[in-house]
Design a protein that fits this description.
The complex is a heterodimer. Chain A is 42% helix and 19% strand. Chain A is of the alpha/beta class. In chain A, strand 13, helix 12 and strand 14 form a beta-alpha-beta unit. The longest helix of chain B has 25 residues. Chain B is an alpha/beta fold. The relative contact order of chain B is 0.16. In chain B, 43% of the residues lie in helices and 12% in strands. The radius of gyration of chain B is 17 Å and the shape is globular. In chain B, strands 1-2-3-7-6 form a five-stranded parallel beta sheet, sandwiched between helices. A two-stranded antiparallel ribbon of chain B has the order 4-5. In chain B, helix 1 packs across helix 4, helix 1 packs antiparallel against helix 10 and helix 3 packs parallel to helix 4. Chain B has a single domain, classed as Rossmann fold (3-Layer(aba) Sandwich). In chain B, helix 9 links the parallel strand 6 and strand 7. Classes of the chains: A alpha/beta, B alpha/beta. Chains A and B meet through helix 4 and helix 6 of A and helix 5 and helix 6 of B.
Chain lengths: 315, 279
């Protein structure tokens, strides 16, 4: 079994290690210990600036830094980065198309015990509507690390979504020579009956669900969409044509996130049934992560069931 | 300040005011009141204080300016045009679809605009980011930002004020345009943000209070700000909203509307009279 690591750990490690190779600044809003930017802070104190508990100001400070030509990461929890500071991100970073990388950790329901106020299930939807904003949601530690390096080497505003909870680091096993490319989905396996399209934490569960379906003779493909925007239309349309039914899976609201992006894509070019696994229109709650994943249907079993339902909808 | 410099600045500021009226009248909308109130400060910044080059507007070593009260874009545009960043004739295209002169400043489109602003409170924070960036790399450029007094009701202004003094941004100068009026009425009636001087002092700033229309005071304030080390400076500039146009002075009504032809002609005559007096 693959090692389990939280993608936020990988984010912090990537900043600290890549800080030797690349010139960039890091901002945080009193959460360096949790977002893991503290690893960078320890190594490069002169390039780290705590903005205190003032996320709106932090996003605009990042915009000002970027306007002078420096690369900069701004970090907080997803709830405050995308939620609290939405308007600052939209107007001060998005509209002038400034080179700010937003490192948002503690996204989704796997925040656990902190509960609804801290479980951001809306950030992909919010960030995805900002023109020119790239939205990346890595599946595991290896992909998260690669995403940070790609972000450093790509100009323009970008939202990077990381999780608090440990997730199996499957990439090294599945694709030993993995090369991360912004905007390109990753096809783990092709399927003729249905394709499971997942992002972030749900990717390893989609693989598990495909294995469950295989045992019943159902041929399910699995695609990892790490870049929700700009979405890889080609890989999605190809899967829709090949398998005739899609199931999306995300640790996010079913409204406005990956499920919506995939449905929009196929509706406009290759209409097939699309069923969505995600947080149904509701808030989270306190609890241990495994319990919460069950309660909110963020499980391989739910993906498996939705896959069978999607197949039955095929004409 | 010597008399000839002062006369030159007064003439330039009057030209800026004439440009504001032309722009807003042709747009049939916009924000003349708060543009007119900052015309003298803008003129001093772009003609006496800041190191900028209209022929090289993206020069990395230039001083930066952020109009945090972005709705007074006509004031900034008219100043930039007067300084030669783009033709003055273009002011008449303000707010039109084919124009780069958006209703609020767009740094991607307009030469000389260092930051896109419009949503109040945001610009001031971006100015802090620019000033911090200069500190990090040891650059000597300075950063200036004009805030509205109504804008100071935004909580983010005080987040930025805290940030600037925490990081000892003595290369940052904020100018608070204290004209006392906002859309819904006097600032003290709508949501009293005063006293600004005591608030900024409590936030760790060096505070200077001046008459926003007196070039001697303006010059003295910016010179004093340059000498302040270890903390940012705010210049609280007591101004007259609508300054220079008789019927717009001290009136909330002219915060965000354009004059129709009859009143446009009155504004033109008011400013022409000032022009003649300065000859």
């Amino acid at each position: 079994m693959a090692d389990k690591k939280a993608t936020r750990e990988s984010y912090g490690r990537a900043l600290a290690e890549l800080g030797e190779k690349y010139d960039f600044l890091v901002l945080d809003a009193d959460l360096a210990a949790a977002t893991k930017t503290g690893m960078f802070k320890k190594k490069f104190p002169e390039r780290f600036f705590d903005c205190g508990i003032a996320e709106g100001n932090m996003m605009c400070v990042a915009a000002g830094i970027a306007a002078t030509g420096k690369k900069v990461f701004a970090s907080s929890f997803a709830m405050f980065a995308a939620g609290r500071a939405f308007e600052q991100v939209r107007n001060a970073i998005g509209y002038p198309h400034l080179n700010v990388k937003i490192g948002a950790t503690h996204a989704g329901i796997t925040v656990g015990e902190d509960g609804a106020t801290h479980q951001c299930n809306e950030d992909i939807a919010l960030m995805r509507t900002i023109p020119g904003m790239t939205v990346i949601c890595p599946a595991d530690a290896t992909e998260a690390y690669a995403a940070v390096e790609a972000a450093i080497n790509t100009d323009g505003p970008m939202y990077l979504r990381f999780g608090r909870y440990a997730v199996p680091d499957l990439t090294p096993e599945l694709i030993p020579d993995y090369k991360f490319e912004i905007g390109k989905g990753v096809c783990y396996r092709e399927g003729k009956d249905v394709t499971l399209v997942a992002t972030g934490y749900m990717v390893h569960l989609a693989i598990e669900a495909a294995d469950m379906l295989k045992e019943e003779g159902i041929d399910a493909g699995v695609i990892n969409i790490h870049t929700v925007k700009p979405i890889d239309k080609d890989i999605i349309v190809r899967a829709a044509k090949q398998s005739g039914a899609l199931v999306t899976a995300e640790e996010h609201s079913v409204i406005g996130g990956l499920g919506s992006a995939v449905a929009e894509t196929v509706a406009e070019s290759c209409p097939v049934p699309v069923l969505r696994v995600g947080v149904e229109d509701s808030y989270g709650r306190s609890g241990q992560v495994p319990e919460l994943l069950e309660i909110y249907g963020l499980t391989a079993k739910n993906i498996y069931e939705k896959a069978k339902a999607a197949i039955s909808l095929k004409r | 300040m010597d008399q000839s410099t002062k006369l030159k600045l007064k003439k330039l500021a009057n030209n800026v005011r004439q440009g504001i009226i032309e722009a807003v009248y042709n747009a049939k909308c916009g924000h003349p009141g708060g543009s007119l109130s900052i015309a003298d400060i803008l003129t001093y910044l772009y003609f006496a204080e800041m190191n900028v080059d209209p022929n090289n507007p993206k020069d990395e070593g230039r001083d930066r300016f952020v109009l945090s009260k972005g709705h007074t874009a006509p004031g900034l545009y008219s100043t930039l045009a007067e300084r030669g960043f783009f033709p003055k004739e273009e002011l008449k295209t303000l707010r039109k679809t084919a124009s780069r002169l958006q209703g609020h400043p767009d740094m991607k489109g307009v030469p000389g605009v260092d930051m896109s602003t419009g949503s109040l409170g945001l610009g001031f924070s971006t100015a802090c980011g620019m000033a911090l960036s200069a500190k990090v790399s040891g650059d000597s450029y300075r950063v200036y930002s004009i805030l509205g007094d109504g804008e100071s009701e935004e909580g983010q202004v005080w987040e930025a004020a805290m940030f600037a003094s925490h990081y000892k941004l003595d290369n940052l100068v904020a100018i608070l345009d204290l004209n006392g009026l906002q859309i819904d009425g006097p600032i003290t009636d709508v949501m009293n943000p005063t006293p600004h001087d005591e608030k900024f002092r409590a936030f760790g700033w060096h505070v200077i209070t001046i008459d926003a229309h007196d070039f001697d005071s303006i010059e003295a304030a910016f010179l004093e700000a340059r000498a302040v080390k270890g903390k940012p400076t705010v210049i609280i500039a007591k101004s007259v909203k609508g300054k220079g146009v008789s019927y717009m002075e001290n009136s909330c009504e002219w915060h965000g509307q354009a004059p129709k032809e009859d009143l446009y002609l009155v504004a033109v005559a008011d400013l022409k009279k000032i022009e003649d007096e300065l000859k």
